[in-house]
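Here is one chain, start to finish.
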Amino acid sequence: MPVVAPTSDQLKQIADEIGLSLDDTDLASFIALMAPSVGAYNAIDQLPDNLPPVRYPRDAGRRPSREENRYNAWYCKTDVRGARSGKLKGRTVVVKDNVMLAGVPMMNGASTLEGYVPEVDATVVTRILDAGGTIVGKSHCEYFCASGGSHTNATGPVHNPHRMGYSAGGSSSSLPSSQRTDAPFDVSHHPAMKVPCAMSEGLPVSMMLVGKHFYEPTRLPHRLRVRTG
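Its structure:
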């Protein structure tokens, strides 16, 4: 969608609403200052999107019933099957709902995003599927992932799997509660995973990372060991 620069009358109205006094010279100056940025936005708008193809079939998933979502851990259930072979063949994975899964709704815990459906898979999703994993759903997270508790998700609080009514931690609040999966997966790194693991799985909250900072080859196997014992 092209970007259109405001007219002098529109700019004057905005200035009046916020208490600025602009004469005709000021208005012309501001419009001239906007011109290069508007031109750059429109040049980008004309470029092709070059979206990566979605290689693995899937439907839009479904919202789980209350009976199968006791802790409010699940945003949706899916059955997205990856390659016929690979290191994750036979493994089930649930991804945090700030990760794009093409064709499946994503709300990132926020009411303002409810109804948004991504067109592409996140890179981590593609890699999971390329390795033969099956993505069985998306787990609730905090409102825009901006909480260390488990009470801000727009659909309601996520309960601690060991005791209803208690916090599960955040912002990946529901990953420990996403039962019967081999690998809960989040991409927010530090506190997003360690706080829920401390509050729901008994790991020390001071354990920030395992191995090198932001180095998934050492972090993901550790999470798998935590979940599969």
